[in-house]
Amino acid sequence: MAEFTARPILEVIASAVGLVIMCEGYAWYSVYRHEAYRKAIITLKRLKAEKDKIDAKEKEIATSSKANKKIGKSTTPLVVKSKGKGTSTKAKVAADSYNNSLAGLTALSSRSTMVTTVVNFACMQFLRSRYKGVVIAVLPFTPFTLLQKLTQKGLELECHPRACGFLFIWLVLQVGLRPFVKKLVGPKPVEGTGYTAFLKSPQIIKMMEKWGVDPKALEDFTSGNWTEEEAPKSKNE
User: Among 53, 100, 104, 215, whose CB has the most other CB atoms within 10 angstroms?
Assistant: First the structure.
C-alpha cells in the first residue's frame, strides 16, 4: 500500500466542509432569504399535492376499469379524456401547472446553482491534480467491486483494495453535509430542486463519465438504493 499521512485527508475534509458552507451561505444570501423564493416553494408544494391527488384518482379509475372489463362490466370515466393521450384533462392541467411552477422555482435558484456547479467543478479539478495517485485514507472494510471503482478512482491500478482516493471522501462529505446545512439556512428542499438534481446536472454527469464513474451508480449509492447485485455495471466493464 502506498505511503500516506493524515494531512491530505484533513485538507480534503476541510475543503469539502468549507465549500458546502460557502455555497449554501451564498444560496441563502442570493435565493433562500427572499420572499419570492419562499412563496414559490409554498406554491410548488400545493401544486404537487394537487397533482398527486389527481394522479392517484386516475390510477384508481384505471385499475377499476381493468377489473370491470374482466367481469364484463363497463364504467363511466369521472373525467374527460384528452384526445389521443389517454390522460385526463385535469391530470394534464395539474401536471403542466406543477412543471411550470418547478421551472419558475428552478429559474429563481439558477444563479446559485450555476455558481455552486462551477465552484465545485473547479475545486474537484484542483484536488484531482493535487492528489492524483495519493492514498488519503484506508477504509475499515473492503468495498465490493463496483464501489471500489469509486473509492480507488485516481489511484494506481495495483493498490490495496481498502485504499481510498480523495473522490470518495469528497462525495460522501458533500452528499452528507449539504442537506443538513441546507436545512439550517433555507426552506425544506422540494423534490427536483435539491442535491439530487445537482448530481443529475449535465455538467456533473459529463465530468463523472470522463472520470469513468457511472452517474446512475453514483445516484443509487447516494440515495441508498444500490446493492452489489442490483447496481448498474460500470461503463468500463
Answer: 215
| Burial of 69 (C-beta count, 10 Å sphere; 0-12/13-18/19+) | exposed
Report d(CA 177, CA 222) in Å as an integer.
12
Copy the grid coordinates of residue 121: 467543478
C-alpha cell at 54: 389527481
Joined together, the cell numbers standing for residue 212 give 469513468
84 CB-contact burial (10 Å; exposed 0-12 / middle 13-18 / buried 19+): exposed
What pLDDT shows up at residue 175? 85
* Cα–Cα nearest to 178, from 112, 225, 104: 112
- State the residue for C-alpha cell 502506498: 2
The whole-number average pLDDT for the span 74-84 is 45
DSSP for 39-62, written as a single string = HHHHHHHHHHHHHHHHHHHHHHHH
Count of beta carbons in the 10 Å neighbourhood of residue 21: 15
Query: How many Cα atoms occupy the beta-carbon half-sphere of 104 within 13 Å?
Result: 16
| pLDDT tens per residue, range 85-128 | 445 788 888 888 887 887 788 778 888 888 888 998 898 889 88
The structure's pTM equals 0.59
Q: Please give the grid coordinates belonging to residue 74.
A: 363497463
Written as nine digits, the cell of 10 is 484533513
CA distance 145 to 26: 38
Residue position matching grid coordinates 427536483: 192
Residue 106, burial from CB neighbour count under 10 angstroms (0-12, 13-18, 19+): middle
- Count CB atoms within 10 A of the CB of residue 89: 13
